[in-house]
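Fold in tokens:
===
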Amino acid sequence: MDAYALPETELLLTGFLHAPAAILVLSNRHIVAANEEIERTFGWPREDLEGQSIRILYPSNVDFEKIGTRWQRWLKAQDTYEDERFMQRRNGEIIWVRARGRTLTPEEPFKLTVWTLEHLQDRAPVTAALTSKEREVARGMVNGYTSKEIGLAMGISPRTVEVHRRSVKRKLGVHKPAELAAKLLSSRPLDLHEEK
């Protein structure tokens, strides 16, 4: 079938559904439409997400409320917004995501918005320069994995993971995994310089 022969509405819908970027259309922070890439990124069938509050993709109510307040304030001043934050997959895994949004109703910023969500797989939010191994370990720590589990996934020994865990905690000034998660969840977009 010749794609150019499709009616414009069908062509636009096809483009939305099959776009290589995760896209959501929200109305008052409820998901009106989601594309197929959302399924790959978050593990939810798009039909299950449509009609739900966007809260379903956040790791905590505090994060959902805090970011919502920031969005609303920003979108009243201009029609686009961008940040990086933790979001949560269906299986409970916490991932780092770049969110870019635009309100289509500036007089009521949340009435109708369009968002792209990019999973930043090779970046973790940190306030100090972490090596790539430390970033991987930090991701595992936030997701509640043991040193043995992290080591197995990374192909390094649990002892080496422990060295990286200590370094992450020292650089970020935290002592417990819960403190690390709280610090990362409350972070603003951060500069991520990798040590060489």
User: Anything to note?
Assistant: The domain at 132-185 is CATH 1.10.10.10 (Arc Repressor Mutant, subunit A). The two ends are 51 Å apart (CA to CA). Residues 61-77 form the longest helix (17 residues).
